[in-house]
Design a protein that fits this description.
The protein is mostly beta strands and about 290 residues long. It has three helices and 22 strands. The longest helix has 12 residues.
Amino acid sequence: MAHFTRTREYSNSGINDILHVPHGYRTARSAQIDSKWLSMNPFNLIELPAGMFIAKTKDADGNLAFRPLPHARVSVAATTSSPRFKVEMPYMFVPGDVLTIIAPVASITVASTAVGTLTAMGQTFSYTPTGAASPTEAAVKWATYLNSTSLAINYSFLSSAATLIVFENDLSKVSTLTPTGGLGTTAATTAKITTVIGTIAQIDKTTEEVVLTSNAAVALPIGYAVGVMVDDIYGFYVDAITFTTFTGNTKEIAVGHQGQLKKSRLPFWDNYIKTYLPLVDAQDKY
């Protein structure tokens, strides 16, 4: 039985639960994972869940190190009046981690429930948020619609109140999106947020919150991907690991770099991962 916290039904039963097509799975890479890169959960266990991505980084001495990808999605909004907030998988972070917003981002204020258009990447999409009774409801429908279009190759969309939030899927790219009609008329250009959210003081295993050394410097709506900048996203691991006094603090693992993954079974997924691992995809239906 898996012990780690869930906001979806994560798995630790391994390859058949993580991969859609096991015969497409490739593991020509390996990594040594140290338990120092994980925080203890409410069961007083240090666990790596199945389907976790593995990142290349540097340790305190500047040496190459591998750690579970320290990225997570905000599940309870962060405000600038508190050092505490929640993410979906807090145990992939440790004290001293410096958190940032991962992807370049832009926001569009939804003006009304009327038909609107959005032009980006040379494509124009027209949509009417039918059934929306307010700009807030329209923003939800716009995000759902745009995530189902070909724009989802380049962007990820979410809503917060009456705002449509746009994230780049390529972390090195910025671009401009032009709305009309119900989406308003103010063009939005994505940009990297350089302000650091804060430094982690601890992971509170009782409340399952990230606790910063001071109040968050940036307000974070639910759904934002936050984390520590890494050198590379190296691959993924299909099994779960529990570190104990019997297993020791380190484990050598086979890291997958190709495969079709079950999105809802992963501790974390964002489309920008495909920039690092182009032979990996995550969906619930193929």
